[in-house]
Amino acid sequence: MTSDEWGRVAEDGTVFVRTADGERTVGQYPEGTPEQALEFYTKRYDALALEVQLLEQRVNAAVLSPDEAATAIKGVRAQVVEANAVGDLASLAGRLDSLSPVLATQRKARKEERAKKAAESKTAKEALVAQAEKLGDSNDWRNGANRLRELLDEWKALPRIDRASDDALWRRFSTARTNYTRRRKSHFAEQHEQREGAKGIKERLAKEAEALASSTEWGPTSGAFRELMRQWKAAGPAPRDVEEKLWQRFRGAQDTFFGARDTAQAEQDKEFAANAEVKEALLVEAEALEPAKGLDAAKKAVRDIADRWEAAGKVPRDKMKDLEGRMRAAEEKIRAVEDDQWRRTDPEKTARADDMVTKLETAIAEIQSDLDAARAAGNEKAAKDLEDNLASRQSFLDMAKQASADYSG
User: 17-37 b/e with 16+ CB inside 10 Å = b?
Assistant: First the structure.
C-alpha cells in the first residue's frame, strides 16, 4: 500500500486525502515535489497512528479508568476524523471504536469489584460496630478508650458503602462511642468523689492514730488501732498524690505505739519469768494428783494449788497458753473422776435400777409358775415359749442387778 492509495497532490500544491465519503483537502504544499508533500502529510498520519496505538495499549492494560479512557478515545477520534493527514484514517477510527467493548467489560469488572469491596467494607464495618457496642456497654475503663480510637482509625480506612447503610452503621458506631465516653466520665467523676471522701476520712484516721501513738494503755489502745485499721480499709483509696503520704503517717503512728508496747511487754516478760517458774512447780504438784485413789484429798489439794497459782501472778506471754492449758487439764482430770462417781451414786438412778430389779424378779416368779403348770399339763409348746421368755427375763435381771450394784458401789 503506498501513499498514493490514500491521497494525491494537485498541480497547485493542494493535498487531498481519500475517504469513504470522497476526497477531502488536508492542506497545501506549494514548495517541493508532490512526493515530498505526500511524505509530509503521511508522517502526520503516522504520528496519529502511534497515538492510537499507545492509547490502545493503555486502555487494554486498564491504566486509565473506563471514563478517563472514553474521554481520551473521544478526543483522539475527533483528531483522526478531522486530521490534516494522509493515510487510512477510517482504519484508525475503527480501531478506536473497537475499544468500546473493552471499556464495557472493564466497567462491568469495576462495578463487580466495587460491589465486592462494598460488601467486604459493610461486613468489616458491621464487625467494628459490634465491637464498639460491646465496649460501649463494658466497664473496661483502662483499655476501652484506646480500643475505640483504634476502631475509629480502622473505620476511616475502610471504603464508603451505600449512603443509607453507611450512615446507619456510623450512627450506631458513634452512639456506642458516646455512650462509653459518657459512662467513663461518670465513673471517673464518681471515683474522684469517692477518693476525695476517702482522703478526708484517712486524714482524720491519721490524726487519731498519731494521737494514740504515745499511749501506754496497751490493751485498749491496741483495740483502738485495730478499729482504725478497719476504718482505713473500708474507706477505699484516696487520690494517688496523697494516699502514700497518709499511709506513711498512719503506719508510722502504729509502728511507734506497737514498738513501745512490745518493748514494755518484753520488760514485763523478764519480770514475770520467775512467776512462770513458780507455776511450773505448782503444775508438777497438780499433775501428780491421783483423784481415783482419793477424790476428796485431790480436790482439797487442787484448791490449794489454785490459790497459790493466782498468788504467783502473771507469766510471760509466750508461756501463758501452755501453762494455763496444763492447769486446766489437771483440774479436768479431778472433775472427770468426780463426775463419774456422781453418775454411779446418783440416788435417782439407783432407785430406778432397784425398781427394775424388783419388777423383773416378780415377772420371773410369775413365768416360772406358769412354766411349772405347763409342764405338769404336758403342754410342750407352751412350756417351750415360757422357757424362752424366762431366759430372756433372767438375762435382763442380771444386767439390772449389775447396774444397781454399780450405782450403789
Answer: bbeeeeeeebbebeeeebeeb
